[in-house]
Amino acid sequence: MEIRQLMYLTQIAKEKSYTVAAQKLHVSQPALSKMIKNLEIELGVPIFIHSRRNPELTDIGKSIVEESCKILESVENLSKSIEDTINLKKGNVAVGIPPVISTVYFPKVISGFQSMFPDIKLNVVEAGAEEVQEKILNGLIDIGFVIMPVDEKRVDVYPVTHDLSVLLVNKDHPLACRQKINTKDLKNERFILLDDSYMLHHHILYACRKAGFEANVDFQTSQWDLIVRMVSYNQGISILPRPILKEFKASIPSIKEVIIDDPIFKWKVIMILKKGHYVTYAMRAFIRFVEKEFYNKR
């Protein structure tokens, strides 16, 4: 059994198609089919149900693919370890960051890291929190920034920072005079929200349902600066991460933020890595830099 065979096998299982797998592996379909047949003869067990139009794993085939994935990950980790030794203090780090987190916290972080480690290349992927987690688990990125909670059985967690999402209203709104409100106080309000590509959108809808009503969403957008402007014209209310609003306070005095007494609007930003994933020198350097950067702000 060869590593190349395991790579081909897992690719077929992933794509559920010999044709697509062959294209991605840059081999011919007949060669791929022959390799699987030879592997089945070598192991003495059927890996796929060949009577089906699309390849479907047998029960033993599923176990073989599962173990193959573990072996391939170990080989990849070994390769990265050797590369680390040869290219000390160099490397690449693929980082996934949701839009809100990247806008609020990371321009300065990325700039500072690249100044300190000019030979480490950062590949920043901007994606929603759910997509970031999916890419981490699929090995498509090395480090992800998300908001708790996450499945800590599948990822390693590194705390970064914490803050609040707060109610945003026009200064003349009746709630503007309050220091703190409950979610139920928003029952008859018109909401202007970030769209459903943001986790905050779902948190707001969930909090309203939990308080006994459906949020009356008048407008949603991916642009938080547009939301702030609309609230400043008293077109509705919104809930946004408090750090974002720091950018607007001085330039738009007609808005007011109010604390919401609901645990769902307290959030923690964390870094996540896939459990068992080899941590390269470049990854360790980035993790330590981020931890130090935010520790100094506490």
What layout of secondary structure does this protein have?
Blueprint: H1 3-15, H2 18-25, H3 29-43, E1 48-49, E2 56-57, H4 59-86, E3 91-97, H5 99-116, E4 120-126, H6 129-137, E5 143-147, E6 155-170, E7 180-181, E8 190-194, H7 199-210, E9 216-221, H8 224-232, E10 238-241, H9 242-245, E11 255-260, E12 266-274, H10 281-295
Parallel strand pairs: 3-4, 3-5, 7-11, 8-9
Antiparallel strand pairs: 1-2, 5-12, 6-10, 6-11, 6-12
Description:
This protein has 298 residues and is an alpha/beta fold. The protein folds into 3 domains: 3-85, Arc Repressor Mutant, subunit A (Orthogonal Bundle), CATH 1.10.10.10; 89-161 and 267-295, 3-Layer(aba) Sandwich (D-Maltodextrin-Binding Protein, domain 2); 162-266, D-Maltodextrin-Binding Protein, domain 2 (3-Layer(aba) Sandwich). 44% of the residues lie in helices and 24% in strands. The protein contains 10 helices and 12 strands. The chain has helices at residues 3-15, 18-25, 29-43, 59-86, 99-116, 129-137, 199-210, 224-232, 242-245, 281-295; strands spanning 48-49, 56-57, 91-97, 120-126, 143-147, 155-170, 180-181, 190-194, 216-221, 238-241, 255-260, 266-274. Strands 3, 4, 5, 6, 7, 10, 11 and 12 form an 8-stranded mixed sheet that branches. A two-stranded antiparallel ribbon has the order 1-2. α1 (3-15) crosses α2 and α1 (3-15) packs across α4. The longest helix has 28 residues, at 59-86. The radius of gyration is 25 Å and the shape is elongated. The protein starts with a helix and ends with a helix. The mean pLDDT is 86.
